[in-house]
Amino acid sequence: MDIEYNDAERAFRDEVRGFLAENLPATIAEKVNNYRRLSRDETVHWHRVLGEKGWLAMHWPTEYGGPGWSPIQKHIFEEESAAAGAPRLLPFGINMVAPVIIKFGSQAQKDYYLPRMLTMDDWWAQGYSEPGAGSDLASLKMRAERQGDHYIVNGQKTWTTLGQHANMIFCLVRTDPQAAKKQEGISFLLIDMNSPGVTVRPLITLDGEHEVNEVFFDNVEVPVENRVGEENKGWTYAKYLLTFERTGIAGVGISKAALAHLKTIAHEYRIRGQRLIEQPAFADRLAEIEIELMAVEMTNLRVVAAAEAGGVPGAESSFLKIMGTEVRQKISDLYREAVGPYALPFIDEDDAPVGPDFAGVAAPTYFNLRKLSIFGGSNEIQKNIISKAILGL
Amino acid sequence: MDFSYSDEQRMLKDMVDRLVAEQYDFDTREAARASSAGYSTQMWQQFAELGLLGVPLSEDAGGFDGGGAELMVVAEGFGRALVVEPYLASVVLCGHLIDALADGVHKAELAESIISGEMRYALACHEPDGGYDPHWIATTARADGDGYVLDGSKAVVAHGDSADRLIVIARSSGEPGDRDGLSAFLVDASAQGVARRGYPTIDGHRAADITLANVRVGGDALLGEARQAGAALDAALERGVIYLCAEATGAMDRACELTLEYLKQRKQFGVPIGSFQALQHRMVDMRIALEKVRALTFWAACSLESAPDERRQRIAAAKVMVGRAGRQVAEEAIQLFGGMGMMEESAIAHYAKRIVMIDHWLGDHRWHMAAFRRALVDGDNALANAA
Ligand SMILES: Cc1cc2nc3c(=O)[nH]c(=O)nc-3n(C[C@H](O)[C@H](O)[C@H](O)COP(=O)(O)OP(=O)(O)OC[C@H]3O[C@@H](n4cnc5c(N)ncnc54)[C@H](O)[C@@H]3O)c2cc1C
Ligand SMILES: Cc1cc2nc3c(=O)[nH]c(=O)nc-3n(C[C@H](O)[C@H](O)[C@H](O)COP(=O)(O)OP(=O)(O)OC[C@H]3O[C@@H](n4cnc5c(N)ncnc54)[C@H](O)[C@@H]3O)c2cc1C
């Protein structure tokens, strides 16, 4: 047993570090490190930089433009990126719909969409959830009726992350309402959001952000060639995509960066002349969280190493999702506590800060990150999966 | 022992509950919050007409002479409706300081201006470097002829932006952290040298950072004796903490109700999500958390007349529980509402925000835990010394 990186892995890590140091704009890193939102252009810029380098599509086979990294290399890349303050990559295109297109899509779909993802010519959104279909995804209602070589699509998606920037959305739609089981009769469509009849309406989350949207479809014409795979077999593809949604959801790199940031504050911020870290109760809590994060990190590495040896992560990713999101939420909780009364002011990002300049984001971030245990399959749903798939209950 | 309300307390409770039930629905609250003051001045006048602004003030100040129980009744009702008017700042904190420190005609006048709703007050106490420590006062008061000159800065003053008058805590002697040497001054919010930056807080209220640069006030601005305001300040803050704990109780109670309704109504997998045992137990845990907060709030509110050590410890205990159990209830409520719980348009999100953020007003759970622990250690020392 050896839990240290080998020479080749260390060399790879240095290469990634060097690349990040040279190519990651300081303005972007500074925003990411301070929990500030990136503009659409900044996000696109970073994706293009990685795309050109050939490092964007980490999980793709090399024949489509993937870098051919081992699971450990992927892990190193994610961790170094987070540590350097690189933006988190938008998952919906490259990490979610791309694997589905690669595995089940037509040649034409592969030829058209995959290169455009590497250049960020398309911004993808995920159209799964509906007002009545959240955890129970298969009960979705959005309809697609075949008319010649088109589908006529009607219905609504909701909580669509960054849909305001997107020009493409992949949707689960009901093509056979008569099917015996609700999982049958669902199809997987790629929809151009600029099509007539598509309306995007902002939803504001409790931290005041515009991050999610409602998307309405009113007699939208979608060419049949935009269907991935077979009609009424969409549920199989949807589930395949979800396993990709959950990889990387542990966010160990992000948590480590967030914890490092919090520790810096704890060492520098003085209240009543005393550094925060000198308050035993605060330091204890920080220590507890760090220990927990170490456990998540090592669990993550065990899964990564198993994958390296050829294993396929299955229900284990549910463990990681729960552990990883809980620890991230705890870090943001302590961050909120760290800034004391300055957690209260709710200031526009463009206005001058009130109190220390790291304080303004603390409470909104804490509230925003409540989403981690809700989306991507809520943590309760993950527990159901573990109890069924692993424990056999 | 008697846990029931007196007739008068029951009448007060009925009045407050009816007022918020009939006139303070969520949309009304949101509209008030969006206004320039951050609350409804009309509603404030109505509070005045109903006598609510005099509840905790003494009879000789023209008030209702309410104690902890009355404070609790009002705050709990306000918490259920997420009331955003500046009751804590103007009535509870400043009202008590005026009651405790001013005298004679002056006191009657000042109290009347609060009770009638004519003037709104804010307590400018906490400072940027002091965190939750109300004695960490670096703001200075220098005698100057008949009057005083004030210099310093104040952080996150609740409703400091809309207040007509400020009660400024300044230091006449001693070092930041000392309770001795503090004086309380009545300062017109528009006085020369007072600069205010107002802003919303994430829990739907408003606050201000305030700087005092060479602010001249007359001799009559001093409330009570010079250097002797510490005890009255502590007493005002204790009442403030009780108010916040009771407000949290009301808000948690309503958050539990809303969540329970949602569990019964929201269907996934063809059944109400409340039929999942994993969620049933979570809901039960939320109710247990609420009961703990309610119990300690009750205890704290009924301890206003107890011996100082006992009183401090009980009030600290209640605030610790509010910080911890409150966070649990708020987080669970959001979680059980799923995506809906994250939405600004849903009431539950605002309950969650207020409940969590009450921890950041007047000392968080860690701050009050330290106070509780100190009392524990001192108590042990007393025992050891006695033995
Ligand atoms: C910020 C944010 C971004 C999102 N982005 C997207 C996106 O881009 N695209 C998209 O399609 N969707 C997105 N979602 C939607 C997300 O996937 C859903 O919110 C999630 O699936 C939960 O569904 P729901 O909100 O309807 O909650 P519900 O399914 O109504 O669940 C409510 C509560 O009940 C629990 N529960 C439900 N069923 C069970 C059960 N069987 N056992 C135990 N507990 C249960 C849940 O865990 C939750 O706590 C996003 C959500 C949020 C909050
Ligand atoms: C010290 C002691 C003293 C006792 N004294 C008495 C006595 O005086 N009189 C008497 O009649 N009995 C007595 N009991 C028995 C006690 O009431 C039972 O042990 C108890 O009801 C649990 O039943 P069980 O041991 O069969 O466990 P089970 O019912 O088999 O439960 C095993 C576990 O599953 C959980 N569980 C069971 N059903 C559910 C469910 N629907 N949902 C979620 N979790 C569930 C339980 O909480 C427990 O963790 C005593 C037990 C102990 C340990």
Description:
The complex is a heterodimer of chains A (about 400) and B (about 375). Chain A has about 400 residues and is of the alpha+beta class. Chain A has twelve helices and ten strands. Chain A has helices spanning about 5-25, 25-35, 40-55, 70-85, 90-105, 105-120, 235-245, 250-270, 280-310, 315-340, 360-370, 380-390; strands at about 125, 145, 150-155, 170-175, 185-190, 200-205, 210-225, 225-230, 270, 275. In chain A, the strands form three sheets. Chain A has a four-stranded mixed beta sheet. A four-stranded antiparallel beta sheet of chain A has the order 2-3-7-6, with no helix packed on it. In chain A, a hairpin with a 2-residue loop joins strand 2 and strand 3. The longest helix of chain A is centred in the last third of the chain and has 29 residues, at about 280-310. The relative contact order of chain A is 0.09. The mean pLDDT of chain A is about 95. Chain B is α+β, with helices and mostly antiparallel strands. Chain B is built from eleven helices and ten strands. In chain B, the strands form three sheets. Chain B has a four-stranded mixed beta sheet, covered by helices on one side. Chain B has a four-stranded antiparallel beta sheet with strand order 2-3-7-6, with no helix packed on it. A two-stranded antiparallel sheet of chain B has the order 9-10. In chain B, helix 5 (about 85-100) runs antiparallel to helix 7. Chain B is globular. The relative contact order of chain B is 0.11. At the A-B interface, strand 9, helix 10, helix 11 and helix 12 of A face strand 6, strand 9, helix 9, helix 10 and helix 11 of B. One flavin-adenine dinucleotide sits at the interface of chains A and B.
